[in-house]
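Contributing new complexes? Match this layout with GN1.
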Amino acid sequence: MPITTIAQQFSHTGLVADVRTLGNGNINDTFLVTTQAGDRFVLQRINTQVFRHPQWVMENMKIVTEHIHSKLQAKKLDDDRLERRWETPRVILTNSGADHFVDEANAFWRAISFIDQAETIDRIEDPRHAVEVGIALGTFHGLVGDISAAALHDTLEGFHLTPIYLEQYHQVLLNSTLRQTPEIDRCLQWVSDRTSFVTILEDAKRSGKLSLRIMHGDPKVNNVMFDSITHQAISMVDLDTVKPGLIHYDIGDCLRSGCNIMGEEAENWEAVQFDIGLCEMILQGYLPQVKGLFTSFDYDFIYDSIRLLTFELGLRFLTDHLAGNIYFKVNYPSHNLNRAMVQFQLMQSLENQEDKVRKIVEAHK
Ligand code: GN1
Ligand code: MG
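Output block (do not edit by hand):
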């Protein structure tokens, strides 16, 4: 079925004029649809190998976006002058009122609103963006902080549970026939030196120090939208992974993404560094927004969460490389290996700056 026919299912304002690829997601396929009337929306094909229950993804997304939307509406009514622009993507139903469309090849499609007059960046180049990234994640956590974790489905079992990724890595390693190279050896060493800390967040969860909340699940820099004119953060997008979890997965993921100036796709991984100045700015944006939500333990685990999530993503890329690139999309055979090395190098640079990160957190308590 041509993609315009699929897009047409979600178009309420006339004929679809154009469909083009949008962004560079590693899992789903994303398109920008423009109608003849000039309206735009986002069309996505969900990777059902990863998201085994796409209906649950839609249910979570509807609960969260409706919750945020009604809060924003109430705030607008309360004081008709919102302090800053803030928007949430919203689910667009098909012409027959469904929240998704299954085509004849059994692919799962859904549409969401397009946020206009906004842009995304893959890496933080202007330090002013760093504070905004922190404000964005904090605003999001604040807006969803009163949804009970039990209200959402677990759409991706094991997502961000590092001990499970470590088990999968050991399994894959046993069966891998890949030739060992100096790069792979280096990665194996990076992992084996750190296996004892992989349970740190899960242990904190089990002992009640950290509790389940609603997390974004993928708050990397290019999932924050900035107003094209003011350059203020105005939305957190890519809500597929919104589900019960620790907000520390988000904190770690956001900082490992934001503090890597060279970006996840850097080719010369050896030059990658964790930028402590950006870390300070992101936390300076984030922490004031979550003051009301945070316990003293929440502060204590910030450093560990950055370290763990950086390690975890390196491990996930490495495992996928060893397994033959079955999870993340790749452009060349060693793409996931290179991505893994970027994360491990970033982690090592962060480890060398542990004291500084802890001091920044202390100062913002
Ligand atoms: C994947 O597809 P994308 O880019 O939104 C992944 C994230 C990783 C990210 C790394 C469901 O997200 O966990 O952090 O790649 N999403 C899933 O770029 O695995
Ligand atoms: Mg994502």
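Reviewers usually confirm one structural detail per submission. For this one: The chain has two domains: 3-116, 127-363.
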